[in-house]
# Entry
Amino acid sequence: MFKKLHLKLTFTNALILICFLFMFSYSIVGISSMALDRTSENSLRQRSLQLISLSKSLDSFELVVIDDRNSRVDGNILGNVMDIHHVIWNNNKKLSTLNIVDGELINVLFDKALNTFKNKDEQFKIIKANGLSYRMYSQYYELPSGRGGVIQIFQSREVDNYILNQLFVVIMIIGSVSIGILIFISSYLAKKSLEPVRLSYERQKEFIADASHELRTPLTIMRTNLDLLSMKENETIIENKKWFDNIYSETETMAKLVHNLLTLAQVDNNQVNTRSEIVDLSVLTQKTCDKLVLMASEKDISFKSIIADNVMVKGDVNRLEQLIVILIDNAIKYTTTGGEILVSLMTTPEKAYLSVKDNGVGISNEDREKIFERFYRVDKVRSREQGGVGLGLNIAKWIIADHKGTIEIKSKLGKGSEFIVGLNKKNR
Amino acid sequence: MKVLFVEDEKKVTDALQELCKIQNIECDIANDGQEGLIYAQSSIYDVIVLDIMLPFKSGIEILKEIRSEGNNTSVLLLTAKDSLDDIVKGLDAGADDYLVKPFASKELFARLRALGRRLEKEYVEGLITIGNVEFDLINYNIRIDGEPIKVTYKEALLLEMLIKRPEQVFTREQILDRVWGFDSEVNENNIEIYVHNLRKKLKNTNLRIDTVRSVGYTLRVS
# Structure
């Protein structure tokens, strides 16, 4: 899925860049063309004014102009494409002065001259003759004697076209190379920008798969046990207590799992409303210990608590209680019969430290990094037997982060573990 | 029918064991991958039911291992992993069937019976005929070219397990377990004597008992 998305993103970027290159190239060529036109038009007009001034001073349309830019050309083609040429039509619409001999071009010029005679104005035109393109300036003027004529100044556009074509080619080559590099960069950036999305998607997929797996396990137990009970319809409930107990305990596991999954789903969607109030952590810890001491005594675990008085923190009382329950519940699960659990609450001027210490199975260094991951269980069988669903510590981690607290684990495999939570104190 | 369940969820295996008892199916239970592999290698089962996510060794690893040893016992993967990729991976690893949890026990046992019948399908009314050898599974009479040959009960049991699954490699533990029972005091040398005797009796047939070095024996049809 992400490979396709990456390709799509790169392709779209490339398409945008190519469109941009064409627009840029045409703009540059267009601007250059306009600049060349303006320069050329100015030259043509200047040249025209010079010749008109000469013609007026001589009071004649017959001019002999000796100019290296206007050398007379014999033949059908221009001697130099850079040259500026001229023709002057007298009041009888006959050619009086010219520095070219090109029949087709003169015919075209004559047509344009007729227009100028008619409108008695000036005009710039692009004309074509013999497959060549020219920019032409045509102007009507009158001699002191009152006779009116038309002067036409023109210049080949081939050089301009050649320059513009070359400019376009250069821009396209440089642009294409740049686009190639940009596509490569774009592909890299697309991949890079998709990476967090991909990781988040993978995590979500993994979470759904894990959640589905965890939900299927209690369902399987319930279903197989129910199937079995349906085959023992002539037996009493007492005779089948084991199967009923299995089903009952699995409904509890499922309820816990669903509750935890909903909490985590809310956490992921930032939908959890945590209250911020002054909480007496001493009272809360004592109250929670009192609730859980029975659970420990059922496993014959010695449960002790040393709790400092009046330790106040700012936070959500329900979430903090949930945190203490998770830590003590875990300690009970992973402490064998006859073991010991010590819950202590200590303070420094700034911090409150809640510690839950046991002499249970302990955690290996390798597992220590992973125990906060969702559905990670060091000992899957033991955890399930104890009703664990593998989400408690992940929720605990979130509660601690939400209260801007810290957590530290001290543990030795086979010797026991200690979870120390640090919270900011709120002095009354 | 004898079934091995390799499943780490004790509450499931307890119920399955009880269900097997009701349906007169002999079963063994292994609660982790390592134990499951040992069971699969040392006994003969009609079907092996494997969970995939198991402690110590995954169901797929067990499956690959027993297949690489030439064990072609029918295997059903019974797992909570339900994605298409998982199913394809499981079947490609050599599983014969795949059932996703939670399952209906009726369906599971119907599938087990179907897998068990695959072998029996090849026998017409309890009679296996390969080339010029006929094996009567009901009263253990063996005929070569229509002529009955004399075999002891243990030899017949040994030949039965080999002839039911030609080309499958049986370990010495499996043979001991099937022919003499797991608590018998007979040692592996006895197997060699019985194999030697059977080889002599099958001399003029297209059946051949081959020794697979450091593993066990297999029956090949030429």
Notes: Residues 68-81 of chain A have pLDDT under 50 and may be disordered. DSSP finds nine helices and twelve strands in chain A. The CA atoms of residues 290 and 305 of chain A lie 10 Å apart.
